[in-house]
Design a protein that fits this description.
Elements (H helix, E strand, L loop, with lengths): L1 H21 L41 H13 L2 E8 L2 E7 L9 E2 L4 H14 L10 H4 L8 H4 L4 H6 L33 H5 L1 H9 L3 H13 L4 E4 L5 E5 L1 H12 L3 E2 L2 E2 L4 H7 L15 E2 L27 E5 L3 E6 L4 E7 L11 H14 L2
Antiparallel strand pairs: 1-2, 1-11, 3-5, 4-5, 6-7, 8-9, 9-10, 10-11
Helix pairs in contact: 2-12, 3-8
């Protein structure tokens, strides 16, 4: 399926120049987080309880017929939960099969974006600096790279997928030093590498003196009313599990630039803007553990090809997203004050982050929302 997705991207490249031009894709298309209307206040649900205000799609001028037609499509794509927020209010909330609003599901790599925000909070509190060498927190020998090469790796390299460690090892999720093999100098190669990212949890633990779950709960989860927890596999991935509304709450936090109603979560505007904008000059569609739409080129996990097309041509150019394996999605669109989340089994094949489903879904949402 990875090859199929790559072929589809190549096809998009053939037609994508016109599409990209139409959508104003640009390597300098910075996301400022401006909403569709500066006078439109965002609604935030209470931190406790199940109350959450709603708004009807008809009152927004959306195509209700097309929205109703979307649900069978989502079900056919093995979706378990689907929510759209407009200005913070629920426009639609659908669950499929035996899945309910209380069911828990894994975020997969969509949780990376939460880690990106948490590292920013740790820096804001003076616990670390993203320009620090990772070895300051993990100690010398956390990789099998020569010490001079290991010392080139910073927390920022982990945030931007530019550690230079080899993503093509037998187990790219393994965080043992023997699995962390030198491939290129840090900062010179972009590669989607789970292990290098995952070790950020240990960096945060060393810097904060708390468990990763404890620090996350204290700084993000409990402050915005999420549920769930990180579940760690020994020497491997750290995966977040929650209900769908918790995913929507995190999307709303990101839409409001790291602030939950009147409660500041991340106040460092420079860090937040860096997280949702191009972080290096290799994969323009990647910020700090966050995927970015509207750029003139993009790269995929497990590939070194640079495609001259944005990640989701059908979506608004200012969309940024947390994307996880098997189509776990948190889409945020500042220009429309939208948050869209999807949980479920794979919509087709096995993809580590983005998939064909992204562009298919946004093609349908475009006809519904009329952006």
């Amino acid at each position: 399926m990875e090859k199929m997705f790559t072929r589809n991207i190549l096809f998009l490249c053939l037609i994508g120049f016109a599409a990209c031009k139409k959508n104003n894709t640009s390597p300098n298309n910075n996301n400022t987080g401006n909403s569709v209307s500066a006078n439109t206040a965002l609604y935030f649900p209470p931190v406790s309880g199940s109350d959450w205000q709603t708004v009807t799609p008809a009152s927004l001028g959306w195509d209700v017929t097309q929205l109703n037609n979307l649900y069978p499509y989502l079900q056919s794509k093995s979706t378990k939960a689907f929510i759209i927020l407009k200005n913070g209010k629920i426009v639609t909330e659908k669950y499929f099969g035996t899945f309910t609003k209380d069911s828990l599901w894994y975020w997969a790599s969509a949780g990376k974006t939460m880690t990106g925000l948490l590292v920013g909070i740790a820096q804001q509190e003076g616990l670390l600096n993203i320009n620090d060498q990772t070895s300051k927190y993990l100690g010398a020998g956390w990789t099998s790279a020569p010490i001079a090469k290991e010392n080139l790796i910073t927390i920022k390299n982990q945030l931007t997928m530019t550690s230079g460690l080899d993503d093509a090892v037998t187990d790219p999720d393994c965080t043992l030093p023997a699995c962390l093999v030198y491939k290129a100098d840090a900062g010179t190669r972009w590669a989607y590498h789970n292990a290098a990212y995952t070790l950020l949890d240990q960096v945060v633990e060393k810097a904060s003196g708390l468990t990763y779950n404890g620090y996350f709960q204290q700084k993000i989860r409990d402050k915005i009313g999420m549920n769930g927890a990180w579940v760690k596999s020994p020497n491997s991935n750290n995966i977040y599990y929650s209900n769908a509304r918790s995913m929507a709450r995190f999307g709303l936090l990101m839409l409001n630039k790291g602030k939950w109603d009147s409660t500041p979560i991340l106040t460092d505007a420079n860090y937040f803007n860096s997280q949702i904008n191009t972080s290096q000059n290799i994969n323009l569609s990647y910020g700090y553990l966050t995927w970015l739409n509207g750029k003139s080129s993009s790269m995929l996990p497990q590939s070194q090809i640079v495609f001259p097309v944005s990640i989701i041509p059908n979506a608004p150019v200012d969309l940024f997203a947390a994307l996880g394996k098997n189509d776990q999605k948190v889409y945020v669109v500042p220009s429309q004050n939208l948050v869209v989340i999807r949980m479920g089994n794979t919509a087709g094949g096995v993809n580590l982050a983005g998939s064909d489903f992204d562009n298919e879904l946004w093609g349908k949402l475009k006809t519904i929302i009329k952006y």
